[in-house]
Design brief:
Length: 181
C-alpha cells in the first residue's frame, strides 16, 4: 500500500491543465502541489523556503514528483542542508539552468547543484529535451546518485509534448515509491 504523502513540485511557468502533474493531482486528490509566489520569475531562496514549508507540513516524509526547474530546486534544497526528511524524489526532465538557451528570468538557480542527494531519487529524461541535453541529464543523475531512466524522444515531458495523464510515468513513479515504502 502506497501511503506516504506526495507533493508535486512544478517548474517555471507552473504546470498547466494538460500537464502530467495536474492530471496526477486530479487522479489523487490527497496529493498537493507546492505553491510558489511567482511561477514566471522564480527566486531560488523563495522557492526553497516554500518547498521546505510544504515538506515540513506533511505528517510523514513525502515523496516529491518534480518537473523541470523543480528538479534543480530539489537539488538546491538538499544542497542547502534542509532538515525535513523526504521519502524520495521523482525528478522528471531536469532543466539545465546553465544552458545558454535556458530562460533568463530565474534568479539564483545557477550554478547547477551537482551533489549527491541524501535520499532515493530517480531521474526521467528525454533524448530531445529543449531544456537539457541527454548528456547533461545523465551528468545530473550521476552527480545526484540517482537512477536514470531514458524515455527516448519525449521533448520536455510536459503537456505540450503530449504527456498529459502519462500512464507509463505513473507506473514508474508507483514502482519507485513501492520500492521505498
Amino acid at each position: 500500500m502506497l501511503t506516504a504523502p506526495v507533493l508535486t513540485v512544478a517548474g517555471l511557468w507552473n504546470s498547466g491543465p494538460e500537464h502530467w502533474q495536474t492530471h496526477w493531482e486530479r487522479a489523487h486528490p490527497g496529493w498537493r502541489r507546492v505553491p510558489q509566489r511567482s511561477w514566471d520569475e522564480p527566486e531560488r531562496a523563495e522557492w526553497v523556503a516554500a518547498l521546505e514549508q510544504a515538506i515540513a507540513e506533511c505528517a510523514e516524509p513525502p515523496f516529491l514528483a518534480a518537473h523541470s526547474l523543480a528538479c534543480t530546486l530539489v537539488a538546491h534544497w538538499a544542497q542547502d542542508g534542509r532538515r525535513s526528511p523526504i521519502a524520495g524524489a521523482f525528478l522528471v526532465a531536469p532543466s539545465d539552468v546553465e544552458a545558454p538557451s535556458y530562460p533568463k528570468k530565474t534568479g539564483g538557480f545557477a550554478p547547477m547543484p551537482l551533489v549527491t542527494l541524501p535520499f532515493p531519487s530517480l531521474v526521467v529524461a528525454s533524448t530531445n529535451d529543449e531544456y537539457v541535453s541527454f548528456e547533461r541529464a545523465t551528468q545530473f543523475a550521476a552527480a545526484w546518485g540517482s537512477r536514470l531512466v531514458s524515455i527516448g524522444d519525449a521533448g520536455h515531458i510536459n503537456g505540450a509534448a503530449g504527456y498529459g495523464p502519462w500512464p507509463e510515468g505513473q507506473e514508474l513513479f508507483r514502482v519507485f515509491r513501492e520500492n521505498r515504502e
